[in-house]
Design brief:
The protein contains 2 helices and 4 strands. With about 80 residues, it is an alpha+beta fold. Strand 2 and strand 3 form a beta hairpin.
Length: about 80
């Protein structure tokens, strides 16, 4: 139920590109591949290099029902 939002400076654009384009299934250590360092905080993980970190707690969840999609083909995705 806990998660973080980590905000990094422009200096880490290449690392963020790796995070957004490389699957953790395809590399042994995605953190190492991106040159970033995780650390534990409040039962979740944050990025050591971040300038700003929000530690968040899930407050509400809801199932995604097919009949609720405005664009019906998104249900297939």
């Amino acid at each position: 139920g806990m998660y973080t939002l980590s905000f990094l400076s422009e200096d880490y654009r290449k690392a963020l590109s790796v995070c957004g384009s490389v699957s953790g299934k395809d590399v042994e250590d995605k953190w190492k591949e991106a040159g970033l360092h995780p650390y534990a905080v409040d039962g979740t993980t944050a990025v050591e290099e971040a300038d700003l970190i929000f530690v968040c707690k899930t407050q509400y969840t809801q199932d995604m029902k097919p009949e609720c999609f405005d664009v019906k083909e998104n249900d297939d995705k």
